[in-house]
């Protein structure tokens, strides 16, 4: 089967997904990186800034202004770690969790529309494969 390289296909799909997500994020006053942070914290586990940066593939020094903005908007909390006061523990606030769920819901609706032309079996197989590949490619 003749096809483009994976990188070319993923890049094309990535550009389409980013273009699809940008207006959704804009309506909610979020940058892509701010959403990535909310998504990274949505699991509920308290994380350090360094651990969050590593898990989302961000430079921790460039992450600080994003965290500052999210905290100023009461979307995240940064608390000193009782075991080491130099370390900040991160978590979503109720407002941050609600915003994350709202944005994620809209993104999932747009994804469903994008994938809607695929037969259900192909769509499910694509999503399973994508989850498996992205899990293997995750930082750390």
Report on the architecture of this protein.
It holds the Pfam family MarR_2. This is MarR family transcriptional regulator. Residues 3-135 form the HTH marR-type domain. The chain is an alpha+beta fold. It has a single domain, classed as Arc Repressor Mutant, subunit A (Orthogonal Bundle). It has helices at 6-27, 32-41, 49-56, 60-72, 94-115, 120-136; strands at 47-48, 76-81, 84-92. Helix 1 crosses helix 5 (94-115). The model has no long low-confidence stretch (mean pLDDT 92).
Blueprint (SSEs and pairs):
Elements: H1 6-27, H2 32-41, E1 47-48, H3 49-56, H4 60-72, E2 76-81, E3 84-92, H5 94-115, H6 120-136
Antiparallel strand pairs: 1-3, 2-3
Pfam families: MarR_2
Protein name: MarR family transcriptional regulator
Organism: Actinoplanes ianthinogenes
Short description:
This protein is 66% helix and 12% strand. By secondary structure, the chain is α+β, with helices and mostly antiparallel strands.
Shape descriptor:
globular
* Rounded Rg: 17 Å
What is CATH's topology name?
Arc Repressor Mutant, subunit A
Distance N terminus to C terminus? 34 Å
CATH homologous superfamily title:
Winged helix-like DNA-binding domain superfamily/Winged helix DNA-binding domain
Domain HTH marR-type: 3-135
Protein name: MarR family transcriptional regulator
Pfam family, one: MarR_2
């Amino acid at each position: 089967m003749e096809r483009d390289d994976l990188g070319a296909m993923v890049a094309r799909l990535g550009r389409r997904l980013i273009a699809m997500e940008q207006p959704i994020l804009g309506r909610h006053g979020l940058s892509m990186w701010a959403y990535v942070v909310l998504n990274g914290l949505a699991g509920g586990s308290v994380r350090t800034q360094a651990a969050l940066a590593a898990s989302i593939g961000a430079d921790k020094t460039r992450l600080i202004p994003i965290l500052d903005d999210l905290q100023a908007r009461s979307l995240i909390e940064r608390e000193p770690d009782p075991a080491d006061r130099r370390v900040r523990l991160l978590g979503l606030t109720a407002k941050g969790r609600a915003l994350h769920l709202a944005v994620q819901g809209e993104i999932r609706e747009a994804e469903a529309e994008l994938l809607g032309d695929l037969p259900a079996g192909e769509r499910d197989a694509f999503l399973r494969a994508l989850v498996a590949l992205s899990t293997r490619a995750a930082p750390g």
